[in-house]
Design a protein that fits this description.
The complex is a heterodimer of chains A (209) and B (221). By secondary structure, chain A is mainly alpha-helical. Chain A has helices at residues 3-9, 12-29, 35-48, 51-63, 65-73, 75-80, 115-118, 123-126, 128-133, 138-144, 181-187, 190-194; strands spanning 91-96, 101-106, 154-159, 164-169. In chain A, 48% of the residues lie in helices and 11% in strands. Classes of the chains: A mainly alpha (209), B alpha+beta (221). β3 of chain A pairs parallel with β5 (206-213) of chain B.
Amino acid sequence: MTGHDHSHEHSELGEMDLRVRALESVLTQKGYIDPAALDVLIDTYQTRIGPRNGARVVARAWVDPVFHDWLLKDATAAIASLGYTGRQGEHMVAVENTAEQHHMVVCTLCSCYPWPVLGLPPTWYKSAPYRSRAVKDPRGVLADFGTVLPESTRIRVWDSTAEVRYLVIPQRPEGTEGMSEEQLAALVTRDSMIGTRRVEAPATPGSAA
Amino acid sequence: MSYVTHADLGGQPGFGPVTPEPEGELFHAAWEPRALALTLAMGATGSWNIDASRAVRETLPNYRDLSYYQVWLGALEQLMLQRGQVFPDEIATGEMRHPAAPVARVLQAGNVPAVLAKGSPTERAAPGPARFAVGQTVRMRAGKVDHHTRLPGYVQGKRGVIEHVHGAHVFADAHAQGQGEQPQWLYTVVFDEAELWGDGATRQNLAVSVDAWESYLEPAA
């Protein structure tokens, strides 16, 4: 088999795989990177830093009025008090959804996203359809998620154009009055903290209490 | 004008519906987490700043045909090629064929948690008093610039209201060009949907905000 034929037999993903391996190999040989650090980085964002962090922030805000007010006043400090700080969350702002006002976050210019509380952004958040439409047709975008808001609910879209990162505090659903902070955190989804979905009440109200 | 960004997508038509995906789905190919980690590890060497890397990403000629991590990887290769840290024959073969160019530091596995937890805050001492105050009406600067900027096209020339003053932050436009941090006051500016999209657009009961550095703004009546 010639080299030419060989390259054609690789799928695009196969070619990307080879390209990344080649680069990693060169950078390691040159001493620019510690390969073990790559494994730690990947493990961190696959298992340690993700939307469960943000869900804990939201659940705390739902049950603790002092934390709630702190979060709205100084989100960076309030979130740091739960241990979530750093890369792509250096300057945090929390915005709270109500029946009157619904917040939604986008980065039209790239993919700015609050990593310490939500982890890596989902593919749709980084995609052209979301980035182009969120600021002009947010109700259409919400419909793509199956989310329908009353016309009377004012929508506010936050375009993350600098290094400030936004966390949406979704509305606490009805029927969750008896739930613990931990049970509440389990209800909070990533998409609800970006603002493309609402938090649904548990299927059987009160069953978790 | 030689600088062309392909990333300024706000309000652009024709991209179709958004496709949601499950919360646990982070990567779609085995090479993607490696590309992410390589980018973060090389970023940690201090060879460039985040604004410079965004500039290289958004100007990749085939930006709109590439997947997200293809953009990252392509930009990473460019950043290192520009600095003589790697060469085309090395990228092609995966073998070191030229001496290493020194880097300021190497991210060691044991330091990863501390480095991520520290991040890179961008707030700086204010260069002087803020020119604008909460509640003030401003107009966004209009017109193309010949460098990376964080002023999206869809708000250029539009009137908005200052809603929040964030302190002074590293100015992305200067930082991306290697001109230092040149911190400026940063504001959240909020726009009504009719101002952005005209009276003819379908009303959504919508307001949109951007975060904008002071030099993006002019006073407006």
